[in-house]
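Page 47, continued from p. 46.
Same chain as before, 357 aa.
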Amino acid sequence: MRTLRDIPDLKDKKVLLRVDFNVPVSENGQIDDAFRVKKQKEILDFLISHGAKVVMVSHITATPSFADLIPQFHILLGLEINFIKSFANIGEYLEHYAGPALLDNIRQNEGEEKNDSDFAKQLAQEFDLYINNAFGECHRDYASVSAITKFLSSYAGPLVEQEVAQLNKVIDAPKEGKVVIMGGAKASTKVPVIKNLIDKSEAILLGGVVANDVLKEKGQDMGSSVVDAEAHDLLVGLDLNDSRLVIPKDFIIFDNKILDIGDETMRHYMDIVSKATMIIWNGPLGLFENPVFAKGTNEIAQAIIESSAFKVIGGGDTISAVDKIGLLAKFDFVSTGGGAMLAFLAGDKLPGIEALN
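Result:
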């Protein structure tokens, strides 16, 4: 991939910057988790200091428009961020440039999710170059991620460059001492990672719905616990009796539902973690949003921090859970991608990365 180092001069260049501002927003309009927003400050400061004219583009699912969030972006980025309501207004804005701007929710345009070349061409026409600094969106085959690169000289931003390097490091690391922890609610995104990494890891520790699916398939009565209807098909090709696939031995159960790993499982997982040389974690081990069922996730997080392993974490819920107990900064690498991280670790080709190659 070409990176910022390959751009000879940014002075007065009109830059379309793909960022990931797809953040959760509470009912009172506050951004609940600003991690992804803050991660864009480095490249914004760099581009502005080198004289570039920057317009950011992103989508958001929590609210139809970015309009009401702009004041929060001012604070989070330490910059005055202007707001462009429609891509039809980009040309006029750049002509009278008044500092970095954010285009409104790109998903308001149906051409975005269709990866429509005509829409991408329209989006590109006012710019000199394109920079993708949104690794978390690189698994999406969207116009502002993929098709846009047909019309502009395109570069990987530092976040994309760093993510690719670190996740390749994870995949290529020796299997001895490599421990993968998979939890959370979306088993469909976790199982492909497990299948891809099980022969490249010493142990894969399971929690959340993916553990429930395996337990169900092995014949355990799951009561009212959350399981995938297609668990059988999802797990085809995975040896559920493989000793490297470590499943919970006991649970915290409430209202006939498994809501956390039990103490015996927690001790067993902590022992494995303590001997690891590399740990990759995506997905909480229980219903961490409720403090009553956060013990497993919190204790494993603490055990990871106390280990001497190289520590990698990713996924919105996992980051939120660990940040809540003040341990996020102690991880060696925090991925900005949830689905993108999992797709990369599963061995999939990411459209946003392929488009930059």
